[in-house]
Amino acid sequence: MPATPYRLRVARPADAAAIAALIARSIRALGTRDYTPAEIEAALLGTFGLDTALVRDASYFVVATPAGLAACGGWSRRRTLFGGDARPDRDESLLDPAVDPARIRAFFVDPAHVRQGLGRLLIERCESEARAAGFSAIELMATLPGVRLYEACGYAADAAVDHPLPGGLRLRLVPMRKRLK
């Protein structure tokens, strides 16, 4: 079987529906080891999702194949640490690279494309751009399945937190951080 041709590119506004579908597909398949179906569905209402400010900033990327999107993720120079457009507590104010860490945001891989190096490809692009923008550190809020990728890429975990979800549910997330060289 021939290798899938992957192409990393900046996400476009027209990708929004495909990104939303990819995020749902990814967490519904890859998150079941760590989260209940009820937690996943509640998180898809805002905790997991596309923040279109990242698309406007050209700091959100997709890995495309001829058949569609295989992965997505980005970085941000804005204060919001995680969550999509539906989160009411978003803060789009800019970070100061001299004192604030950049943010890694919304990484998801299609279940059919796991273990192909796509997460690492996205991380390397995001870290490179954050470094070029003057940031010396980067942080994120990891899903439990994502912790494994981020640890493999040199991120250090802090104590897990329980993020409130609709319906009185809670979602376990892990804050992580890395110094950029």
Description:
The protein has 181 residues and is of the alpha+beta class. The protein has one domain: Aminopeptidase (3-Layer(aba) Sandwich). It is 28% helix and 28% strand. Strands 1, 2, 3, 4, 5, 6, 7 and 8 form an eight-stranded mixed β-sheet that branches. The radius of gyration is 15 Å and the shape is globular.
Q: Report the sheet-strand fraction.
A: 25-35%
Which structural category do the helix and sheet elements fall into?
Answer: alpha+beta
CATH class: Alpha Beta
Instruction: Categorize the overall geometry.
Output: globular
- Roughly what is the average pLDDT, rounded to an integer? 95
For the report, how would you describe the main beta sheet? 8 strands, mixed
Number of domains: 1
Question: How far do the termini sit from each other?
Answer: 39 Å
What are the salient characteristics of this protein?
5 helices, 28% helix, single chain, 28% strand, 181 residues, 8 strands, alpha+beta, eight-stranded mixed beta sheet
Short synopsis of the structure:
This protein has 181 residues and is α+β, with helices and mostly antiparallel strands.
